[in-house]
Structures are given as structure tokens and as C-alpha cells.
Amino acid sequence: LLVSSLTTDKASAHLKVCGGAKKVVISAPSADAPMFVVGVNENSYDPKMNVVSNASCTTNCLAPLAKVVHEEFGIVEGLMTTVHATTATQKTVDGPSMKDWRGGRGAAQNIIPSSTGAAKAVGKVLPELNGKLTGMAFRVPTPNVSVVDLTCRIEKSASYDDVKAAIKTASEGALKGILGYTDEDVVSNDFVGDSRSSIFDAKA
């Protein structure tokens, strides 16, 4: 069963209802549920776990990329910015939002700066990067497909060609079907329906 309840306690309630769901996947980062990102740490999943988190779409985009860069070059610190498509929590027109004042502005009329937990979540699925990444989001008026821009300070000296080569190799090997690579002149709509978690745009 896939749910959006954010805690193990709330998500566990679904194990007792819905015809007796045997497993629950939280479709967002969770403060207390074990978190997994395919291609990054799914091998540490224990079948005894009944409630898990699959993190967020942004984390699923960022984590495979960060994994490759860190394994090849060593990330000292990094800043990620996501240009994020509209989500279900946003308003169609300006309205009250006491928790996040800017989040109450109309989604279709604005570029809205917002917080994101993706950088922190990467530290949960890649413990060696815990505390090394930070980030922010811009919510934009598009219905689907988001962008993550990752800027890193790395341990090993590397050119952009070196970074591209490492990512291309991973996309054709261990992370094939999860991490993609493109050097074509694409835009966001070209990725609608793409099943991969993350596609690296070499020309961006």
C-alpha cells in the first residue's frame, strides 16, 4: 500500500485497515521510517520492515547522482537547487497559509521559493554525505517534471568531462534504468513518462 502519511505511527494504521495491507510505503521523506532510494541503498532493506519511506521525487533524482559523484570524486560539500513542478499542496489562487506564507500564493501565477528536505534525506540514504548537502526549491507553474542543480566541492581534481564520463558509465552500468544520461537539446516535457529516477543533462 502506498500512502502519504509521514510517520511510522500514522502509516502503521494502514496495516490494520484497507483489507489488511501487509506492507506500507510512505511516498515522502519520513522522520522515523527507514528510507530507501532505488539504486542507492535498497539492498539494505529488511523484509521484516513493514513500513518504509521511498523518500521524495527530488531525493530520488538527487541521490543516485550524488552517489556517483561521491564515489568517483568525493563530495566535501554541496548545494542543490530544485526547480520543482507544482504539487498538490499548493493553492490555485492566493490563499491563507500560516505555516508557509509564500506557499499560499497562487501556483499558476508565481515562481515560489520554498524549502526542501531532499538534501537532508540524501544524508539518510547515503550516511557518508550526512550534513554535507544543503538546498532550496523554486516551485514553478508547470504540471510535471522537475530539475535538480547540484554544485559540489570535491576532494579529487576533475574536469567537467571527467564528471560526465563517470555519470555516463554509471548510467550504462550499475545504475542503468535508474540514472540516465543525455546530451540532446531536451526540455522538461521530453521527460514526461520517463520511468528513470534521474536523467543527467550533459548540455545544461
Automatic annotation (TrEMBL):
Q: SMART domains, alphabetically?
A: Gp_dh_N
Xref: Gene3D superfamilies? Dihydrodipicolinate Reductase, domain 2, NAD(P)-binding Rossmann-like Domain
Q: Could you tell me which InterPro entries the record lists for this protein?
A: GlycerAld/Erythrose_P_DH, GlycerAld_3-P_DH_AS, GlycerAld_3-P_DH_cat, GlycerAld_3-P_DH_NAD(P)-bd, NAD(P)-bd_dom_sf
GO CC terms, sorted: cytosol
| Cited CDD domains | GAPDH_I_C
- MF terms per GO, please? glyceraldehyde-3-phosphate dehydrogenase (NAD+) (phosphorylating) activity; NAD binding
Q: Which UniProt keywords apply?
A: NAD, Oxidoreductase
Taxonomic superkingdom: Eukaryota
Glyceraldehyde 3-phosphate dehydrogenase NAD(P) binding domain: residues covered: 1-57
| EC numbers for this chain | 1.2.1.12
Name any Gene Ontology BP term.
Answer: glycolytic process
Q: In which family does this protein belong, per the annotation?
A: Belongs to the glyceraldehyde-3-phosphate dehydrogenase family.
Q: Describe the function of this protein.
A: Key enzyme in glycolysis that catalyzes the first step of the pathway by converting D-glyceraldehyde 3-phosphate (G3P) into 3-phospho-D-glyceroyl phosphate. Essential for the maintenance of cellular ATP levels and carbohydrate metabolism.
**What is the protein named?**
Glyceraldehyde-3-phosphate dehydrogenase
Organism field? Zea mays subsp. parviglumis (Balsas teosinte)
Its taxonomic placement starts with: Eukaryota, Viridiplantae, Streptophyta, Embryophyta, Tracheophyta
